[in-house]
Amino acid sequence: MSKKTKAICLNNFSSTATLANNEVSVPLGSQDTLNEKDYDPYEHRNVLHPNTYFGALVHLLKCSLGAGILAIPRAFKASGLAVGVIGTIFIGILCTYTIHILMVASLKMCKLTKKPALDFSETIFEIVKHGPKGCRKYARSANVAQVAKWCISLAVFFTFMLMFYVPIDITWRKISGHISEKRHNLSQFSLRTGIVIFATCIAIFAGEHLGPLIELVGAIFLSTLGLMVPAIMDTLINWDNLGCFYWKFWKNLVISIFGLFGAVAGSYYAILSMVNEES
């Protein structure tokens, strides 16, 4: 028995394009959903410059570690050697896990909506759109998660070099279409130079407050984007299948509470350090 296949033209195909003809609106976990094996998003992605395994690993380390690694001495100074080592390992494992569940959620939504790839805001939009009925009306407003990109860019602007390619990539995509191809190289050099000068000026003007400033940015963005958002999205995407005794819900609730505590406590002590140094 032969299977019929449909050919899809990938010429000029955007990896984040909406395949309107294939779009569905069914609750997650329902038995009536599309068979996820019928669509493999990896087979429909048109990547001009794909990464090698080593390149992907380097990008992962660069994005995960970031400039926050420069603040580790301050963290060890405040916590002590024993607590610092154990805490670093624990936070590393926790952040890796939350990124993992976010990637799994994005892959599920790619299969469900038959889209080759979804970025951060699109993943959240689709999860809320196909999630519990009470959440679906907020799908459009969930697209406000696009602000996360701006927040990430802002956070990276305050760091130097280690995550430098992230804001460049985001910014260049927005402005490259308005610049002649002959001037692309010069424009990129100018943009990179300008951002370096900007970041350096921030460090100069921050002065002795640079340490608390890094702590404040890390406390807010790591806790929200790194812990709370992935946990909430994992809860929504598994709303109809939370497991025995709703263990997935309780697990994500603990992660969210931990992230909220980290955001509040970290922000409080970072601001307190700024005030004490000022006085």
TrEMBL record:
<feature type="transmembrane region" description="Helical">
    <location>
        <begin position="213"/>
        <end position="237"/>
    </location>
</feature>
<feature type="domain" description="Amino acid transporter transmembrane">
    <location>
        <begin position="144"/>
        <end position="271"/>
    </location>
</feature>
<feature type="transmembrane region" description="Helical">
    <location>
        <begin position="147"/>
        <end position="168"/>
    </location>
</feature>
<dbReference type="InterPro" id="IPR013057">
    <property type="entry name" value="AA_transpt_TM"/>
</dbReference>
<dbReference type="Pfam" id="PF01490">
    <property type="entry name" value="Aa_trans"/>
</dbReference>
<keyword id="KW-1133">Transmembrane helix</keyword>
<feature type="transmembrane region" description="Helical">
    <location>
        <begin position="80"/>
        <end position="105"/>
    </location>
</feature>
<keyword id="KW-0812">Transmembrane</keyword>
<dbReference type="GO" id="GO:0015179">
    <property type="term" value="F:L-amino acid transmembrane transporter activity"/>
</dbReference>
<feature type="domain" description="Amino acid transporter transmembrane">
    <location>
        <begin position="52"/>
        <end position="124"/>
    </location>
</feature>
<keyword id="KW-0472">Membrane</keyword>
<protein>
    <recommendedName>
        <fullName>Amino acid transporter transmembrane domain-containing protein</fullName>
    </recommendedName>
</protein>
<feature type="transmembrane region" description="Helical">
    <location>
        <begin position="189"/>
        <end position="207"/>
    </location>
</feature>
<feature type="transmembrane region" description="Helical">
    <location>
        <begin position="249"/>
        <end position="271"/>
    </location>
</feature>
<dbReference type="GO" id="GO:0005774">
    <property type="term" value="C:vacuolar membrane"/>
</dbReference>
